[in-house]
Amino acid sequence: MEKLRFEFIVKAKPDDNKTNIYAITSITDTQNQTFLVPKEYQSVHLHKEILKLEIFDKIKNSLQRRHDKRQVWITLTKEMKSTYLDDGNLQFNGFLLEKLEEFHETSSIEPTLLKKAGNKTRLVAEFSIEKFSRNTTNVTQWLDTFESECARLQIDTDLQKVEILRLLLDDTCIDWYTSMIIKHTIDSVWSVWKKSLSETFADKGWSPVRYAMNFKYIQGSMLEYALKKQRLLLEINKSIDTQTLIYLIATGLPNFIMDRIDRESLKEVNDLFNCIRGLESLTRKHDTKKALSTGNKYNKQEIRQIEKKSCRICENKGKLNRFHPENVCWYNYEKKTTDDKNLHSNSILKVELSNEDPKN
């Protein structure tokens, strides 16, 4: 039977650095040939056949922090063969994937030679890190991860680190990089670049802290909420102790969920995640009752499908595994609230205009 090895990574959503997504970055065949998946095809919600597999639940349980990754062998179903294979070639929905050259097989191949051969971009694809941007919450933590990845990929010299850094910067940070080249030249020591990046982009305000501490569950998947809350808290303080991390995640849950969790049994964060997964059905039933009590109309068949069918509106916004009727989706409510406010403002303006003295 045909099988392929998929590499899954937790990374930031392209248009929302504060939201994590599961991504497939590469696919390897049984001949140990690895093919890169373009960024626009990496989001796992595009790989619908994989979402249906039981192994994907284990993948989600295993990948709980940004930059976590796993390589998993998956036996292809008939539908998956048509999606990923084309007469022996690896593809994704008709797009032929590019083969990754095995330039890590021998330590005698230096990264500078890879650059001359035009492989520097491919080397960057090996980094398990998101691009740095002005929206990066913790610059110090990002730099620590960058240096760890450089060590893993045998990027040892200051020059190599500076060159690779350029390809890991978002467009908004290119001006900073260009200024550093002019001021210090590309041959300057890495510590100078590291210090400048930290001082230029360090967020010394309270906004990230407030957002992380006040982040609460609203609706949809509680496990998705818990994973994001954990990531936000670790981004502001990666040294946070386990018990405090558990408590802060738990206090963002609804009270009727918290009261069903035995606090003394939670020794690790994974213990809390396992409890949350077991209580997911309660929030779905609660969302259904809440929707009915607020006068939303939908038939019994729709209610029975709530726990089976995820919301397409949430999926389009990258929020996976949220089970509720689309007519009670939060994003619909948010849009309606904004429209109502605009309508109210326009009404006030009309009243004020009508009350003006016509002689003026």
List strands and helices in order, with pairings.
Layout: E1 3-13, E2 16-28, E3 34-36, H1 48-51, H2 55-62, E4 69-75, H3 78-84, E5 85-86, E6 89-92, E7 95-96, E8 98-99, H4 111-116, H5 120-125, H6 139-152, H7 158-167, H8 174-184, H9 190-201, H10 207-214, H11 222-236, H12 242-250, H13 255-258, H14 269-278, H15 280-293, H16 300-305, H17 312-316, H18 330-354
Antiparallel strand pairs: 1-2, 1-4, 2-3, 3-8, 5-6, 6-7
Give me the secondary-structure category: alpha+beta
What is the overall shape? globular
**Got a strand count?**
8
Q: SSE order, as H and E?
A: EEEHHEHEEEEHHHHHHHHHHHHHHH
Regarding quaternary structure, what we see is single chain
Overall number of domains: 4
Strand content: 5-15%
Strands of the largest sheet, in order across it? 4-1-2-3-8
Ranges with pLDDT <50 over ≥5 residues? Answer: 102-118, 295-307, 347-355
Major sheet: 5 strands, antiparallel
Proportion of helical residues: 40-55%
Q: Nearest-angstrom radius of gyration?
A: 25 Å
Please count the helical segments.
18
Mean pLDDT: 78
Distance between the termini: 85 Å
Key phrases:
360 residues, alpha+beta, five-stranded antiparallel sheet, three-stranded antiparallel sheet, 18 helices, 12% strand
Structural notes for this entry:
With 360 residues, the protein is α+β, with helices and mostly antiparallel strands. The protein has four domains: 3-93, no CATH class; 111-201, no CATH class; 210-328; 330-360. 48% of the residues lie in helices and 12% in strands. The protein has 18 helices and eight strands. It has a five-stranded antiparallel beta sheet with strand order 4-1-2-3-8, with helices on one face. A three-stranded antiparallel beta sheet has the order 5-6-7. Strand 2 and strand 3 form a beta hairpin. Helix 10 (207-214) packs antiparallel against helix 11 (222-236) and helix 11 (222-236) packs across helix 12 (242-250). The longest helix is centred in the C-terminal third of the chain and has 25 residues, at 330-354. It is globular. Residues 102-118, 295-307 and 347-355 have low confidence and may be disordered.
